[in-house]
């Protein structure tokens, strides 16, 4: 039960929300034709006769897209349906060349599943998946080139999509946001969708309704189409839910309709009333036979499945001793998790995690870099941690070494060696410094010996300072105590 | 020999191989016939020059013995087959400027076998019609017409008339509900609709995808075997094409039919059946019996539902298949104020009355609230009709029926035009075969009292065209029909 409640003078309201997410399938060619799916090519460059809906052209199913869908279904902990069917969704639009979209309607390839999401209070919540089906994308209409004409780019027409439909399990914007981040993380782990909402390769439709807190009512929902960032999805839920509350509290009625979220004005406005909803006249696609999957294929894909974020997180907690929070942060992105594992190999993983989430992330953020572009390699980060663990350098010096690594990409051992930053562990050298410090601070020595033992810290600081940070603090401590 | 166009393809090939005639002579003979017979309106696009060029190439191949199965055989191509760089209109105003940049698989197969194309043949608009009167280019005149111009049948009226009038050695055609068989019967020629999936539909302008099937119309049974062997075969570009191997169909021609069981369905013989048709049916059964076949009485109990079932499913698929003709990318465009108006103007001007009628029927039966009552029910009945055939084929090897309940009627016949149902009733013996996906051939059995050809239909088991060829050849010999 979420704590997210809309409270007004008149009452308390609960938000009910479900999501439909379109994920562009990563595949070399389109789902029903051999044309390339390359993003950013010239307009109408990647269009086959099939994509353009030329007379007599027929779709042929790209098996790569089917495999990607099975992978994704497994990643959603979902039932893979061994029998599925394609259907035609009929409507007219200029960027829909066939006059229908080939999709799956009654028999989707993936059935019920779930994703566990992590919430900020440390709890997890299970979000149920209703289904996932595969279909083709439409082209793009461009209206802003000419005041009187629209232009059509069919590069995207026929690119494979996975449409994931959740149950109405979200009770707060935070949950929806956490879900989208988790889903994005899963599909990126799987390599089935690049999850870039800003490029439109992942798009989200948001369904929202509200009900008085503590009731089980099902009130009318509104759908907001194509909300294109996690932040906007969260804002859209908040804004739309408040609108519903406002309407109900003023004795109004919510109509089932399609709305559009305006992220600048932070409002939603009507796109299409229910009366004008399309009748899509779905019927089974006669150009494609039913899609029958064998157990062998499903098992093969299951076997080849990469370790997913939840499993990785659990392993990092149980085997490497990370805190659940650290593990979650590190596992959200597969590249980060891989980097971490490489860096932590054979070392104290917890120390590596601290460095990764501290100085390392801060450095990437400051330099505005992806982890793939990091000047500090995983091996070198690991070596740096080794240098600290083996008392070659102090933690303080390590920070300086890291700064140099970030600039030069050099091996920390080499940096420490060349710049003479090795910790001094030679007793006589430290003793010489201690003697000098004692000799030049007779008053403090007297105070210490008179019982002001907390002056020890000051002495340690002085000695380390004089050693230019290289003296091993533990040894300084020990020797100082003896000498004082 | 007087006229090279009198002989069959089989005879032409043996003369070509023996160098008794040349492909150029043969082609010129057909072009001459074609020029003399423009009155039949069988061709709508001529490619005679190209055909002659190709004939010269064929001549070289015969000279150096690299001649292929149909080397130098001049064919007519139904205008539903997309032919690269040759205008392909489906006899519709909406496509009357369309020049495909691709070749249909069936025509490509024929080209690969050395055939050459004399031109594109008239047909009902988008293959919707039973009399070739819905063509944008006007009706085809049946070459058997006496004083009154008679219909050639439809939708492949141009194909049947061109073969009958010897304006090509053979023609390609398509059959969705009888469009090969009915015009074949009306024009006294022989045509076979193979099993659904035998010929690739790739590049054939789609009418009703789950029913459409290409086949040849020829001068006789032997030529049909030759031609179908060159047209058929698995095609990866059509997901509904069959991987079953196509046997050498010519090998079945001439085989004896002793012990073959021929089924006569009681439901095809209502009390009111045309007496002449009925008596020719008896004659055909007698011919086969005299050849050693056994006549068996069978039942196809759901026959009476075939027409209504067909006229739900075919228009439903057509309404969706024809959505792509929207004036956006190719074909006719009639501008309007905004996209919707452009659609309306384009499709209003581009489609003829019968096509519009079927789009309306199809849209209606797929609409929300009507889908279950019409489309879904029709699919269930379709299954029952298929089951009828499955049951019948446990008792017999072939089914013999008339092809059409009527003889060719006058162009503009008011009874046919005042109520489209009267026209649809002509398909009563042919549509079941498409619903069940079975192969069936029509061949001439004799002339009516008005001197007009009547046809018999032989229906076989799925993928058992061979048995049809066996019996059809014996029936052809026994009927001794004299071609025009």
Strand proportion of chain B: 5-15%
Just name the CATH architecture of the domain at 4-244 and 462-479 in chain B. Answer: Alpha-Beta Complex
**DSSP helical segment count of chain A:** 15
| Termini Cα gap of chain A | 61 Å
Structural class of chain B, by secondary structure, is alpha/beta
Total number of distinct structural domains of chain A: 3
Overall geometry of chain B comes to globular
Q: Supply the CATH superfamily name of the domain at 4-244 and 462-479 in chain B.
A: Amidase signature (AS) domain
Q: Main beta sheet of chain B: strand number and arrangement? A: 11 strands, mixed
How much helicity do the residues of chain A have? 25-40%
Instruction: Kindly state the percentage of residues in helix of chain B.
Output: 25-40%
Largest interface: A-B, 30 and 43 residues
* Overall pLDDT level of chain B: 97
End-to-end separation of chain B in angstroms reads 16 Å
What structural category arises from helix and sheet content of chain A? alpha+beta
Largest sheet of chain A: 9 strands, mixed
In oligomeric terms, what are we looking at?
heterodimer
The number of E-state strands of chain B comes to 11
Query: What is the strand content of chain A?
Result: 15-25%
From the alpha carbons, calculate the radius of gyration of chain A and give it in angstroms: 30 Å
Describe the overall structure.
The complex is a heterodimer of chains A (484) and B (484). Chain A has 484 residues and is an alpha+beta fold. Chain A has three domains: 294 residues, no CATH class; 112 residues, no CATH class; 57 residues, Arc Repressor Mutant, subunit A (Orthogonal Bundle), CATH 1.10.10. Chain A contains 15 helices and 16 strands. In chain A, strands 1, 2, 6, 7, 10, 11, 12, 13 and 14 form a nine-stranded mixed beta sheet that branches. In chain A, strands 5-4-15 form a three-stranded antiparallel beta sheet, with no helix packed on it. A two-stranded antiparallel ribbon of chain A has the order 3-16. The longest helix of chain A is centred in the middle third of the chain and has 20 residues. Chain A is elongated and about 95 Å long. The model of chain A has no long low-confidence stretch (mean pLDDT 93). Chain B has an eleven-stranded mixed beta sheet with strand order 1-3-2-4-6-5-10-11-9-7-8, sandwiched between helices. The chains are: A alpha+beta (484), B alpha/beta (484). Chains A and B meet through loops of A and helix 9 of B.
